[in-house]
Specification:
With 174 residues, the protein is of the alpha/beta class. The chain folds into 2 domains: 32 residues; 128 residues, Hypothetical Protein Ychn, Chain: A. Helix content is 45%, strand content 17%. It has 5 helices and 5 strands. It has a 5-stranded parallel beta sheet with strand order 4-3-2-1-5, with helices on both faces. Helix 3 packs parallel to helix 4. It starts with a helix and ends with a strand.
């Protein structure tokens, strides 16, 4: 048998093996159950989390708030009562303002989306508090009076976060 013919036959067998293997993998994946948090949540009635939000990147900030909301919804769906505190500090402070003119012009559209998300979260089941650190405001030429009404201004975000930890909240920096 020629070398070309041997290589062609070997390639055909290899292709068939790959096709069979991928088909079996697809069937196995289709038969497995979707990802679940049931095992991790077993025995839990509630989950307390204090999120420390500091990013000034509007796309990242909106993404983090969206995942926090997704986490809240997943806990509710799994029968676990969420208790979330979202604490904004640092450059995230720009996006807690009611006056979006304080934002760079290119960030204002995302700023509107972030404001809408914060308003949505404020009224959502499982959100215990949305807070803004007052210490972060003056260095950014922002004032407590400029913070949107859906976000409560606290004296010091670190004190607030540690207080919530002392009350049983887990600390997460997303």
């Amino acid at each position: 048998m020629s070398t070309k013919r041997v290589l062609f036959t070997a390639a055909r067998h290899l292709s068939a093996a790959v096709l069979i293997a991928s088909s079996l993998a697809s069937v196995a994946y289709a038969q497995s159950s979707p990802p679940s948090n049931k095992e991790a949540l077993q025995g839990l009635q509630e989950m307390k989390i204090a999120f420390d939000i500091t990013t000034g990147n509007p796309k990242s900030l909106l993404g983090r708030l969206t995942v926090i909301d997704l986490t809240r919804k997943q806990l509710l769906a799994d029968g676990v009562e969420p208790h979330f505190v979202i604490a904004m500090r640092g450059d995230a402070s720009y996006f807690a303002q009611s006056d979006l003119s304080k934002l760079k012009p290119e960030d204002r559209e995302m700023g509107e989306k972030i404001a809408a998300k914060l308003k949505e979260l404020r009224g959502a089941k499982g959100i215990d508090n949305l807070v803004q650190c007052a210490v972060s405001l003056p260095p950014r030429k922002l004032s407590p009076e400029g913070v949107m009404s859906d976000v409560k201004v606290v004296g010091n975000g670190w004190i607030t976060l540690v207080s919530y930890q002392q009350k049983g909240y887990s600390y997460i920096v997303p």
